[in-house]
Amino acid sequence: MNDLHSILILTSSLQIEAGGLYYSVPALSKACHDALEHANIQILAPHKIVLKETLVHWSPLELNLSLPLGPNTYKYAPGLLSSLSELQPDILHVHGIWMYPSFATYRYARKHNKPYLISPRGMLDPWALAHSAWKKKLMGFLVENRVIQNADCIHALNTEELQSVRAYGYQGPVAVIPNGVELPDESLLAAEAEKKRRASTDGLHFVFLSRLHPKKQVLELIQCMDVFSQKYPDRKWVLDIAGTGTADYEKELKQAAAPFGERIRFHGHVTGTEKSQLLAQADWFILPSHSEGLPMAVLEAWAHGVPTLITRACNLSSSFEEDFSICLEADQVLWPDAIDALFETSPEERILLGAQARVYAKDHYSWAEQGRKMARVYEWLVDGAEKPDCVITKGVE
Question: Which domains, and CATH codes, for the chain?
């Protein structure tokens, strides 16, 4: 590699409110750092202050901040372009759209003739575009359409997102690179598996772990459990809900769950050992989302040996060919029966399904492999190296 010396990663948020991006963007950036020994990778974000845990979260990468002004939803930071000029990157990679960092990336790249890459992170999916549609149409007309259409490459997390990118009108190169996942300690999983073997066969432990947002259909899941309990009153179950959202939405969820008492438990934001233990204890992981890029939480569930019940909107349809991943249909009337079907599995069967899920996560979603793929994309865009196999230049094939 002769010309690729400096890579700049732009992200709109360094906070946990970013949801899955809080984990996936630093993980991919660090994996690229490991794959590119001679390149300097730096991070730039519109942010006021950095806490110690944030520095640790991104280590060993260097964080650069630009003071944001105005509405938090747009992340306008007037000093962002000056920061770009000071850092002088060879290539820019921006995560997320519809905010100022993507426009600043476009302006700098055009002015200095530098390549730039966009990771929409699910923000071009049909449901996401329909949410606040008039604002996005206006933003697209004024700014974002130019940003997207002039990108040297777009990063899609899967073939479903590739199709969404093409549907939006972008016909340039698309690099299809999924998120990755870290595998937890096998000793923890073995201990929890033994507990599951001794557990009663008529009670199930469900876990939902994600950002608490209407698009995740958390309220609908709670309402489903109400219908399920009336339809199947003899079934024993517990639902753990982990994640944070707006104060109003959290209040609405807790009010809906109140009649269930300890059968529905809220944990807030969980990390580290607490998150690993919560996942490892689950019999089934449920994510009934309307829209996703590629949900980190599902990959983490698989890595922890937990089978899943997920919607097609999670963009992991290829996993439905495996026994450990079951499709939750969009029609909510069908949800109670889908939940009931999970009770037909024995503890031994669920442990076997979980073991299959863990192998699948290990084989398909290694962060090291995703970092190597993205590193090759950077080299291709800057050095003119051979086009990586993950890059699709036309259509969706």
Answer: 6-180+366-392 (3.40.50.2000), 186-364 (3.40.50.2000)
